[in-house]
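[audit] Reproducing an earlier prediction to check determinism. Same input, same settings, fresh worker. If the tokens differ from the archived copy the diff job will pick it up downstream; this log only records the rerun itself.
[audit] input (215 residues):
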Amino acid sequence: YSSVAAGRSHSLATSSDGQVFSWGAGLLAGHAEVMAVPTLLPALSQFYVCCVSAGAHHSLAVTDKGAIYSWGHGTLALGHGNAEACPEPKRVEALRDQRMCMVAAGLFHSLAVSCAGGLYSWGEGDFGQLGHGGKNHQPLPKRVEAEGLQEGVRTVAAGDHFSVAITDSGALYTWGSNDCGQLGHGDLSYSFRPKQVEALQQERVRCVAAGSEHA
């Protein structure tokens, strides 16, 4: 397998030929019923999927053509402009003009990176996890305009209510909820915009992972 992702009650994996296999909770896995073993996801079989992400309530996939598909329970994190459930993968049309290369699924929000290094977020924003400077919800993908991210974003990760990004130069930025210090800024203050983690400022960060309330 070339990409794997573990959600709260389901898992996703992509094979070397770009096929998606899923198992666990039926709706989240894209099936009509619970799957106890990895099962091919027919709705994406016509595409070559290169990246998947499993959230607590939804799933995301990116094809080699740069298209993003989402499915799962009804939340704004699906990026379709409403909070309706989506039992099968559906393309996020708002990003059709962008070639995307990576996604990350949080609890009720999603992140995506374009091949040009642009960062996009959507979903619930109560904790500032979308990075747009406030708590507003965002039903459709919106680009995160932050000074530190102008050089381009390489990879992202999403916790329950916070977000993490690595820039092309290896700088680590975090934003959102911080009740447990998960942002790494040395305090418990929320950040509504991406802020660099100074403790790793001298390091070139290559990879990051976000748990529920830690990174």
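[audit] rerun output stored. Observation attached for the diff report: The mean pLDDT is 96.
[audit] end
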